[in-house]
Design goal:
five-stranded antiparallel sheet; 16 helices; 18 strands; seven-stranded antiparallel sheet; Alpha-Beta Plaits; Uridine Diphospho-n-acetylenolpyruvylglucosamine Reductase, domain 2; alpha+beta; binds flavin-adenine dinucleotide
Length: 460
């Protein structure tokens, strides 16, 4: 329970309608995209940076923990509050402030929905590439705080590669502006990228300046069907070695294919180990040439069939299956734990083999799909959280998956972040010295430990 005096003070800053304390309202802020949940003590919805700063000053004085929240689509439980904390929702700060065509930059408030920025810049022929599948239900601030990726990252990179400048409210309420529109900038430590991927533990991002690029003229899509997973994986490297850098190179394993086919009846093959979905883009002629090269390479690498879309409608049909993976899995079991491991590309077959063994050992359905071009796989464990024994098996399987990824030279997460779910495994992945350095950074920026405590690092 937060004292009435503090609630009154916060209402004085943001207005009476924008401080929520009713338990019914609080339920809506108890979740993220995982199955973890916890109601916060209150929710505050500021309208601008000055209000965020004033709210943070109150929280700092009262040692009230703050959980910054975009759209709550996070997949690491980093957005799930603790019972004593204040959720600071950025959703009212949803204005695109500038699209600077000359410098190819956009400046926006942190609560802008990613897809809205993309649509706005596309109207003037520009392109903001980061494309988390959640782009219609996640914010720029949340994307920066998680360094979100997506299918297009192979060619275009992740959110952090586009963030040039930030406005951040620090743990004592001071407003830091760092970076900007200079394309090159090595003026002191790179503070912009210190906040990228920091999951709301170092500061509250209130405004971002992001780099844009010219809109690619054309896209081409192909779907390649591989009887052997090993061959699909080798094809990924062969495509890149042939000098083609596709915008996306997505892999779905046999279990994922079966779930999607059962859901949508797209005539996907059920007797193969993998399919690759490949998209090239750029000028008409180069997008076309590259998809032809990729299709030929797939054929030479063991694909039984390669379907190249001839029209935008056919391309959309090929993408339908990949887009439907999440709802398709939801039909199999009531719950899913979506992991996000990364391995060097050459280790994808070994990693998938290990995941299949882990699935057998723990008697759990585990599907594997993901961004094969980046070596970023999403093993999804399907289960029923009401079954306590099954939940224990899920925990054991998760630990085994993380261990396998690290043993194969990879890591725990490529785009979802650590939150609380992967925190117990962080040291295994980065080592104790790195943990010590992270703790020192956290202490320097948040000495009272009020910013999203317990996320990434255990609270002290
Ligand atoms: C169906 C689905 C598909 C997804 N697909 C992808 C994908 O393809 N790629 C991918 O990378 N992720 C994906 N995600 C995960 C999620 O959408 C991303 O992590 C996204 O970046 C979270 O944005 P958000 O606005 O919802 O942030 P939230 O979930 O609200 O917050 C996430 C974290 O960022 C912090 N945070 C939020 N806003 C701020 C801010 N302004 N300042 C400081 N900290 C802040 C929070 O405290 C929390 O730690 C998916 C999720 C779902 C549910």
């Amino acid at each position: 329970m937060v004292k009435d005096r503090i609630v009154d003070e916060l209402r004085g800053i943001v207005g009476p309608d924008y401080v929520l304390t009713d338990p019914v309202d609080l339920v809506c802020y108890a979740f993220d995209g995982t199955f973890e949940e916890c109601r916060p003590a209150l929710v505050v919805l500021p309208a601008n940076t000055a209000e965020v700063s004033a709210v943070v000053q109150v929280a700092a004085c009262e040692r009230l923990p703050i959980v910054a929240r975009g759209m709550g689509s996070g997949l690491a439980a980093a957005t799930v509050p603790t019972p004593e904390s204040m959720v600071l929702s950025l959703t009212r700060m949803n204005h695109i402030l500038e699209i600077d065509q000359e410098n190819m930059m956009a400046t926006a408030e942190a609560g802008v929905i990613t897809g809205d920025l993309q649509a706005a810049v596309e109207k003037v022929g520009l392109f903001y590439p980061p494309d988390p599948s959640s782009l219609k239900q996640s914010t720029l601030g949340g994307n920066a705080a998680c360094d979100a990726g997506g299918p297009r990252c192979l060619k275009y990179g992740v959110t952090g590669d586009y963030v040039m400048g930030l406005e951040v409210v620090l743990a004592d309420g001071q407003v830091l502006r760092t970076g900007g529109k200079s394309v090159k900038n090595v003026t002191g430590y790179d503070l912009v990228h210190l906040f990228i991927g920091s999951e709301g533990t170092l500061g509250i991002i209130t405004e971002l300046t992001v780099r844009l690029i010219p809109m690619p003229q054309a896209k081409r899509t192909a779907l390649a069907v591989f009887p052997r997973l090993e061959d699909a994986s080798k094809a990924v490297n062969q495509i890149l070695l042939a000098g083609v850098l596709p915008a996306t190179l997505e892999l779905m394993d046999d279990t994922t294919i079966a779930c999607v086919e059962d859901y949508l009846h797209l005539d996907l093959p059920l007797d193969v180990e993998a399919i690759l979905l490949i998209e090239t883009d750029g000028e008409e002629s180069s997008a076309q040439r590259e998809i032809e090269v990729a299709a030929r390479v797939c054929g030479e690498s063991g694909a039984r069939e390669v379907r190249v879309a001839r029209t935008a409608k056919e391309s959309d049909d090929l993408w339908r299956g990949r887009r439907a993976v999440s709802p398709a899995l939801g039909r199999r079991r009531p719950n899913k734990l979506g992991e996000d491991i990364v391995v060097p590309r050459s280790q994808i077959p070994a990693m998938i083999r290990r995941i299949k063994e882990i699935a057998q050992t723990h008697d759990l359905p585990i599907v594997v799909f993901g961004h094969a071009g980046d070596g970023n796989l999403h093993p999804n464990i399907l289960f029923d959280r009401r079954d306590v024994a099954e939940v224990h098996r899920v925990e054991a399987a998760t630990a085994d998956i993380f261990r396998a990824a690290v043993e194969l030279g990879g890591t725990l997460t490529g785009e979802h972040g650590i939150g609380t779910l992967k925190r117990p495994f962080l040291e295994m992945a980065v080592g104790s010295l790195a943990i010590q350095v992270m703790k020192e950074i956290k202490r320097a920026l948040d000495p009272r430990g009020i910013l999203n405590p317990g996320k990434i690092l255990a609270s002290t």
